[in-house]
Design a protein that fits this description.
Elements: H1 11-17, H2 24-27, H3 35-38
């Protein structure tokens, strides 16, 4: 459940990891209060 971990990754590490897996920052999008973000991300493990 790495994507649910409430951890901060450096921007550099996050950019590299998000090529392969959904990072905690990417997973924030489905929980956003901004409607266009909420309805646009359906990935769980793979971006």
């Amino acid at each position: 459940m790495f994507n649910h971990a409430n951890i901060h990754l450096s921007a550099r590490l996050d950019r590299r990891l998000r090529l392969l897996v959904v990072t905690p920052d990417m997973h924030r999008v489905p929980h956003s209060i901004i409607r266009r973000e909420t309805d646009s991300n359906f990935g769980f493990n793979l971006p």
